[in-house]
Design a protein that fits this description.
Elements lengths: L57 H7 L3 E5 L2 E6 L5 E3 L9 E3 L2 E2 L27 E5 L2 H9 L8 E4 L9 H5 L1 H10 L5 E6 L8 H10 L1 E7 L5 H7 L6 H13 L3 E9 L7 H13 L5 E5 L4 H14 L1 H11 L7 H17 L42 H5 L1 H4 L7
Parallel strand pairs: 2-6, 4-7, 7-8, 8-9, 9-10, 10-11
Antiparallel strand pairs: 1-2, 3-4, 5-6
Helix pairs in contact: 2-4, 4-5, 8-11, 9-10
Length: 407
Amino acid sequence: MPTATSIPAASENLPSHGKGPRRRGGDPTPTLFPDVPAQRDSGPETLLPLGSVPERVGIARLAFSSPLADAKRGTEYFLLPVKSILNHCESNRVPFSWTVNPYRGCEFGCQYCYARYTHEFMELDGQDFEKKIFVKQDAGPLAGRDLGMEKVQGEHIAIGTATDPYQPAEREYGATRAVLLQMAERKGLSVSITTKSDQVLRDVDLLQRIGEYSRLSVNLSITTVRTRLARLLEPRAPRPDLRLRAVQELRRAGIAAGVFAMPVLPGITDHEEDLDALARAARDANAQWFAASVLFLMPSSRNQFLPFLDAKFPRLARRYREWYSREVYAPETYRQEISARVAALRKKYSLGGRPMDSDRSTEPERQLSLDLVGRASVSTINTSSYKAVSQQSLRSLGSACAKEDCV
């Protein structure tokens, strides 16, 4: 069976130079617990007459009617009309009830990004994920209305589950800050933010206001402390040291913050010395937790990532194809090994797990530690009442977490 040591070392391959239309309730909403969306119908019976054009509906229709707001850095920005900002996740298998993604698409252009498939719901190619960014219009007013719903009260809201809320577009459009402004006006919320950007420091004032009356945590996603490798994997994301500094500054400001080593890339970022360096850096930045998950490779992401491996890590390409050609997950034995490695690092550096409660309440005392790479994609639970999530459970989330205008 494959193990973490059965893949050639990434350092041996690192280059020496250079830097279907969506219908309500049908397709899954991406979360930090990625699901496998249902395949679209295919076959002769679904073919349209020659020359005919299918009518676009749902989010695809909205996307194609969205006005172009700007174009620069090789990226186009569109204004997307939506009906709501909060997306409801009805499944009790995830530790949050609501998600917020102020943007569709992400300019950071991470080679491995699993959320590329969400562009396909708008009838766009997954490789347009970083080239066509959709800014959700009226994010502030819609968030204010959504937060006022009685069913939101006391439920956890996860911001940045599919696209980065602090990607470059946020500097100009401010959709994320508009949502936070609404949250700062309310009490008793439970909110988490996941980002690769130190731009989150711009909103320290708001985060402190939210944290005064609500439960708030920030996760900085960092795959490696090696700057050149990070630039190769995440072309437009801020450097790892800037993200670690953001953790440190957030902690100094009294804001709960930690590190997500997500994803762990087999043969590239999974070696003991690399993960140890990252965990140690998290500890030095005063991070409160350190969690990790192994690469999850959807077909649309595979189309982007495998050619990248062919060009930059050719010795790894064959093994990745063996592992991911038929499955979106790495072999279970490998995930178990990484899970054990991460658990040992948490113990070594006195780092906790992700700060969420098993009952989704806003009580700060009880914490849930999630390691998304174990036998069932969730392990090392501190709260005994929380049950581990199986892969089959992950695949079932789509029907429970779908809403056409809110991904």
